[in-house]
Specification:
heterodimer, A: mainly beta, 6-stranded mixed beta sheet, 11 strands, B: mainly beta, 7-stranded mixed beta sheet, 4-stranded antiparallel beta sheet, 50% strand, globular
């Protein structure tokens, strides 16, 4: 059974600080997506990483896919209150189309 | 920007009743999915659908559930004889199915409450 472990589960920091969220597995994924979910809403895609070692940047967010395609990280620089939310990683396997989901990291940025 | 839409946004039903959740995937997408998320828990895969048939389903997707693409735009999830434990957010997603970039786009969800 493929599993994705996200850490930390919960993170509360001050505005302006940097943070990193991790997504780890013992399984290899063909791609990995990061989503952000607001309460009562559907996950909104932030990025898809496909190539081992790939790094993608979206403004202050930096996403990295591990060389072995088993792990990923999300780094936020100079966090802002608007970054508050639930961040989810989801992996796609080679053998099927279903996404395997992490449990999420609940991020709170205090002004 | 194209998006996945779902109706209704909220549904309250009595235990044992049937519900149909509706989704309109992104128009040029070929793969359709249903996921659920019980409050406070992980998103769980239910089923994927391609070429007018189920391509994969999870253990959760038992005989109580069925999916259908009744026309060229809608994709529905039917839950027969709902149970209390079916209460959850149900998300529809779609993708163009192009590997390896398996990017799925999600609708806003239907919150189902079974009483």
């Amino acid at each position: 059974t493929q599993l994705l472990e996200q850490s930390p589960q919960f993170l509360s920091i001050q505005e302006g600080e940097n943070l990193t969220v991790y997504c780890n597995s013992s399984s290899v994924f063909s791609s990995l997506q990061w989503y952000r979910q607001e309460p009562g809403e559907g996950p909104v895609l932030l990025v898809t990483v496909v190539t081992g070692g790939e790094v993608k940047k979206l403004k202050r967010l930096t996403f990295q896919f591990g060389d072995a395609r088993k792990d990923s990280s999300l780094h936020i620089t100079a966090a802002q209150p608007g970054d508050t939310g639930l961040y989810l990683c989801a992996g796609a396997s080679y053998s099927n189309y279903q996404l395997i989901w992490g449990a999420g990291t609940k991020l709170i940025i205090k002004p | 920007e194209p998006e996945v839409t779902q109706t209704p946004s909220h549904q309250v039903t009595q235990m044992g009743q049937e519900v149909i959740l509706r989704c309109v995937p992104i128009s040029n997408h070929l793969y359709f999915y249903w996921y659920r998320q019980i409050l406070g828990q992980k998103v769980e895969f239910l089923v994927s659908f391609y070429n007018n048939e189920i391509s994969e389903k999870s253990e959760i997707f038992d005989d109580q559930f069925s999916v259908e693409r009744p026309d060229g735009s809608n994709f529905t999830l039917k839950i027969r004889s709902t149970k209390l434990e079916d209460s959850a957010m149900y998300f529809c997603a779609s993708s163009d199915g192009q590997r390896p970039q398996e990017t799925q786009y999600f609708g806003p969800g239907t919150r189902l409450l079974v009483l």
